[in-house]
Design goal:
eight-stranded mixed beta sheet, two-stranded antiparallel ribbon, 8 helices
Length: about 350
């Protein structure tokens, strides 16, 4: 029986074709596997970007949450910051004598014992402090409070000043007079504080500077057009639209006694000029204080920790250190209206 041609033993040409086919399979197998291994999947890149974004987020979260200096490079003080700790260490190495001047007239005498007792605990502990009480009722301090070592109270009698308007307009002049005699020859630093406040956390040497102002608690972080500067051009306290960086409270400010005298004297003169012209600044004494601090920028600015109100508008602060007792739950404008009615 005859054998079909395709069943015969493969010839040399057929073998060559088979060898080429097998070689192609081998090349395809190894080359395709290598290419597959070399392809970088997208998932690790995504994870790397995620890790980068997470790292950036963590760095941002652990960075400073509050500004530590003003646009003119003066320190903006937060009591628990590292710079405040260094400042306290610096002044702790030498003894300083600081005065606190406060006006106690009329109904405000009821705050005096709470103010002094809290200051004895928290205000410049361990330092020499003299409290100057400007009052129309010297017996409001009876019986005398027992103070710590190196702490003293001095009563400076003043004439009775009924009504908040009259009091606010006279306070700068009264402070200037008290600094001239007896304060200037007794202390190095002086702070003016409203009597209706209470120290509730430590207030240390971090507050000391040549000229010290405190940010208004309800206006910290607000835009410039929200600041209640005096806008009437006839007033000596008028602030132009392109002026002003912050709005400062009149409840706590200070500095070197020489700087305090210069400021109190200048503000009292501006107030007298407006009184002579029949002008009433919208923020009373505070308007003139802000005008002065625009022209003479403070060398140290205290955060709202150092003048805080229990108000829905008050800024959130890490620590409340000096808290208003007379303005609880009242906004700035409400309180101004209230004082105008007194």
């Amino acid at each position: 029986m005859a054998v079909l041609p395709f069943c015969k033993t493969p010839t040399g040409s057929v073998k060559l074709v088979l060898y080429c086919f097998l070689l192609a399979l081998i090349i395809y197998f190894f080359h395709g596997r290598k290419a597959a291994v070399s392809v970088t999947p997208p998932r690790p890149v995504f994870h790397a970007e995620s890790r980068l974004m997470t790292s950036m987020t963590l760095v941002k979260a652990t960075g400073p949450q509050t500004p530590m200096e003003t646009p003119w490079r003066a320190p903006l003080v937060w009591g628990d910051s590292h710079s405040s700790a260094r400042h306290r260490e610096k002044f702790a190495q030498r003894g300083i004598h600081t005065g606190v001047v406060t006006l106690v007239v009329g109904k405000y005498k009821r705050f005096i014992h709470q103010f002094l007792s809290s200051a004895e605990i928290y205000f410049l502990p361990g330092q020499r402090v003299t409290y100057y009480i400007l009052t129309d009722s010297p017996h409001s301090l009876d019986p005398p409070m027992e103070l710590g070592p190196k702490r003293h109270v001095k009563v400076v009698p003043v004439a009775e000043l009924p009504g908040w308007n009259r009091l606010a307009y006279r306070r700068m002049a009264l402070i200037a007079d008290a600094i001239r005699d007896p304060i200037s020859g007794e202390v190095e630093y002086l702070f003016c504080a409203d009597i209706d406040q209470e120290f509730v956390a430590p207030v240390g040497e971090e507050i000391l500077g040549n000229l010290v102002a405190t940010l208004h608690p309800e206006l910290y972080g607000m835009p410039r057009n929200a600041f209640p500067y005096e806008v009437e051009e006839v007033s000596s306290a008028c602030v132009d639209e392109d002026e002003g960086d912050y709005y400062y409270t009149s409840e706590f400010y200070g500095g070197l006694v020489s700087e305090m005298y210069r400021m109190a004297r200048a503000c009292s003169m501006l107030i007298l000029q407006d009184q002579a012209s029949g002008v009433l600044a919208r923020g009373l004494e505070e308007s003139y204080l802000n005008r002065y601090l625009i022209d003479h920028r403070p060398t140290c600015v205290l955060s709202p920790e150092y003048s805080w109100w229990d108000s829905a508008l008050a800024a959130d602060v890490p620590v409340q250190r000096l808290v208003s007792l007379g303005r609880q739950c009242e906004s700035y404008d409400q309180e101004m209206r209230k004082k105008h009615k007194c």
